[in-house]
Amino acid sequence: MRILHLEDNSDDSELIRITLSLAGIDADIRLVASRQDYVAGLHDFTPDIILADYNLPGFSGLEGLEIRNEQAPDIPLIFVTGSLGDDLAVTTLRLGATDFVLKDRMARLPDAIQRARQESEQRLERRRLDVELAAEREVMRATLDSAQAAIVVLDGLGTIVSANPRAASMVGATPASLPGWAFWEVFPSPSNAGNAREQVRLALEWPHLPARDSWTMTTVGGRVVTWTSGTITSPGRAERVVLSGIDITEQRQAEHRVHYLGHFDQTTGLPNRQHFLQNLEERCGKRNIGTPSVLAVMLIALQRLEEITDSDGEEAIDRICQAMTERLKESQEQEPLLARVSENGFALATELVRGCDLDDFAQHIIEALSAPVAVGGRQQVVPVRSGVALLPDDAADPRQLMRAAEAALHYAETSAERSYSFYTPLLSDQARERLQLESELRAALIAENQLALHYQPQVNLDTGRIEGLEALIRWQHPQLGWLPPGRFIPLAEVCGLMNELGAWVLQEACRQLVQWDHAEIAAPTVAINLSASQFTSPSLFVDIDQTLARFGIAPERLELELTESTSMRDPQASVAIMAQFRERGLKIAIDDFGTGYSNLSYLKRFPVNRLKLDQAFVRDIVSDADDQAISRAIIAMAHQLRLEVIAEGVETAEQRDFLKAAGCDIAQGFLLSRPIPAAECALLLGQPLSLI
Ligand code: C2E
Ligand code: CA
Ligand code: CA
């Protein structure tokens, strides 16, 4: 222990050393008598304790105390002095002396020193703790201040003790203004006012539960906050309830939005199909048996929207659907159930007086919808088709009712005569048939021998030689026999089987080419028909690449036939897809040319090899002057673009001769050959004969 001893009497100093040593205290003592030595000792000796005499020549213990107070306040100072009056003793203690020991009571010194040391250590420790605590409190405060959660501390009665800024800002107050208020006065929950009070009571009654169920309430300004409560009990202190609240307003809004998007159409604000069905079920549930009215469901499909999208864009469709919504609403005296059930479809459900004129009802709506709509500065007539079914006449429940209306709509869409149709049981037979055929087609894709390709030769009009084969699919149905593609291709398109069917055709054509190669039969290019959905399928190129690679077939040996209308649907996209075909070396022909509304500027940009003049022009080409003119024009134009022309559906020698005279390059048709099975085709290819 280092002791700085302020004393002019060296005997006294010696006495102290002995006293301490006897008490077992090993002390390093520096004796100083002047102010200068004393100050130096404070700094370079850094004593653990100071012992000071009161009276010194030219210096005093009191001054020494003052210097210590200023320069080393943590070092205990004990006066060791001959005498010290009571007044002075009190003064020195008040000024900060740690203790005093009279020289004639020197035995007390060791104890006094030990105690002073302990006290000083404790003081230091306490100061360290204070600093730590202050720092921690600062961190806590910063945490609470910056917390995204609202934090409110309550006493056992629910009165706010403190609140963080987030909590205060929720109610537009400052943290300092909240203490003293009852929690539920500041954060009212309008729906159930007792809620907050009840939760606080529970938190106090079951303090051992750290956090309890959260509860939600609305605060000022419509914010939705969910609160969780916990209780703090610390010995000797009153209980506190800590509430933390999270503002979930945005989350709630998002939930509502999701609900809205899941149940309503954004463009028209009408319920969607799902929601319509729910509404319909509710409505049906409320109907009494024996109600004197019938519930009519009318499904309405707007026609030709694709064309309008092509010419006027998506906004035009939105505009049209909004106008139709208004008209549907206005068409009924009583408010009907309305919905937008698909991109181009609406549903309307309403009660009709039994025995009323149903045609009147349907016609009235169709007429209302058929008035032109202003789109892009023009008046556009949008044709509509509709199907109606009645409950309880046509169906027993809402879902059946919808299905019946769908069958009626489908009939109206496919029949040429009327724009609306009422459900008859016959219609559902047709629907059932279609379903049946769909599942059979799925089975056919897996079965080994139900599907086949027939090949129709394409013959050069100059040489009579076969220059190509068009692959045409056939289905040997187990019960119905051979079915032409017209019976099942459109079905495959609607039920999503077209890509699979297309993949099968591609594989089968490649497989056939390999087989002919092995048999050393020189096969010409094989043309394959691509449907609209195949053409835009993202997997098209992968399918083609993989299949060609698998069979080792050079791409030049295949020609892809795309109808004019498919390629004109999105001409720009078509150009890009066709370019990818060409990059691979595949050939391209435009099928059914002349029937679509071709845009010649695009035709120039389509990187195709051939045009196939549609059968419609060939049929009457010998007698119809118009068809002759169109065919000649198409052939001339194609040749200018360096495209070959194939005439389809050539059935007579007259047709062939006319076409040949008009400069047509190739002919395909029953005159030359019907589509024939591969084996028969091999025979044809084996003989170098001219077909003309
Ligand atoms: P398409 O591509 O226009 O095929 C030509 C159709 O005309 C074939 O009917 C063919 O048998 C028929 N035809 C050929 N020569 C004559 C003739 O001289 N006179 C008459 N009246 N008709 C003739 P098919 O085989 O019934 O095919 C009908 C349609 O089905 C095809 O029209 C094509 O669009 C589609 N199709 C056929 N096979 C496939 C296929 O594998 N994939 C795709 N996506 N569609 C196919
Ligand atoms: Ca074709
Ligand atoms: Ca064709």
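^ C2E complex. The chain has four domains: 2-123, 148-252, 264-423, 435-685. The chain has a mean pLDDT of 87.
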